[in-house]
Amino acid sequence: MIGFAICGSFCTFDKAFDAMRKLVAEGWEIVPIMSVAAATTDTRFGRAADHVRTVTEICGRSPVLDIVGAEPFGPKTRLEAVIIAPCTGNTLGKLAAGITDGPVTMTAKAHLRSDGPLVIAVSTNDALSANLTSIARLLERKNIYFVPFGQDDPFGKPHSLVADFTLVPETLKYALQGKQIQPLLIKHESPKSA
Questions:
Q1: Alpha-helical segments (H) within the chain
Q2: Half-sphere exposure of residue 157, counting CA atoms within 13 Å on the CB side?
């Protein structure tokens, strides 16, 4: 059984749902977790209620939506791994600073206290600016593994990084062996400069 946490990078939800479906198809039982923003914010990428419904349908259970529901992960309710996909810059910063103020960060903290692997699929427009120090700090930490990532639009959004969500299952396999999948830095197909 693994945890799959979703944060509010709404433009990557479809990719996260596809990764979730692939893991279910591989036989994983998934406990879904959603940040408050992911579970309650309607955007141009869809309605929050529809996203919660999609996650529930894929996993066959309702997502954990609060700190109380997330706190038992770790010693009480063992998960083989926890995936955060997408992981926003906000969540990266909180993980790097040890801030636990929502269901996703509580799940990560509870899981890491048992030395379980945490897999992070970055999706943030500020990765190569405000969030770079958080990424560096998390790369140094034991039991944290990143899904390979790269610049998704280097000319239009030069600070943005997005993970390749198709590599979530393979990254999980490596993380369960205590290894970081390589290469970590990848090239996305992106728009060319003018």
A1: 13-25, 36-40, 48-59, 67-70, 89-97, 103-112, 132-140, 168-176
A2: 14
Residue with tokens 């060319």: 192
Task: Please give the span between the terminal C-alpha atoms of the chain, in angstroms, as a whole number.
Answer: 47
Tokens linked to 5: 């946490």
| Maximum CA extent, the chain | 55
The architecture that CATH gives domain 2-176 is: 3-Layer(aba) Sandwich (3.40)
For residue range 119-168, list pLDDT tens digits in order: 999 999 998 999 999 999 999 999 999 999 999 989 999 999 999 999 99
What residue spans define the domains of the chain? 2-176
Distance, CA of 26 to CA of 22 (rounded, Å): 6
CA distance 88 to 106: 15
Relative to beta strand 30-34, strand 2-6 is parallel
